[in-house]
Predict the structure.
Amino acid sequence: MKIAIHLLLAASLVLPLAACKKQEAAAPVQAAALSAPTTNDDDQWKLYLQDVVTRNMGTVTNSPFVYYLTSQENPKFESDYKGQLDQVRNALARGIVGGNLIAFGSPESAKMADIATAGFADVPADTMKKVKIVFIGNPADSERVKAAVERTGANYVFVEAK
């Protein structure tokens, strides 16, 4: 009887330790964050933005809305700018429900900030609670985007493109 009690006691001490080892081994290894591209290569920028958005999802489970603007060196820049501005305005005018993430990023940080601030200009106050807005760009552009976003009740996150 004493032997059985000692074995049960020993097992109760060993099993939790074994479970801890399994949890430690199962912990995923997160890849290093990508750096902002030093060129205006669209493919590199899109990979970078995808990485930043994924790292900032938090509890958001819906697919994010990511708005990207090409470099001014791109011959289609003007049409891309107008197209993105229209898309952002239309999406925000329809409304975004809580639990969603909207991200803005571009090698042209100031121009992307123009799009974001124009898009949020007509959004009524406190209508985007529980929506996460991520602006990826230069610190100089962040404050005006933040001012446009915060009055909507959305959660604003700035990520410096570096």
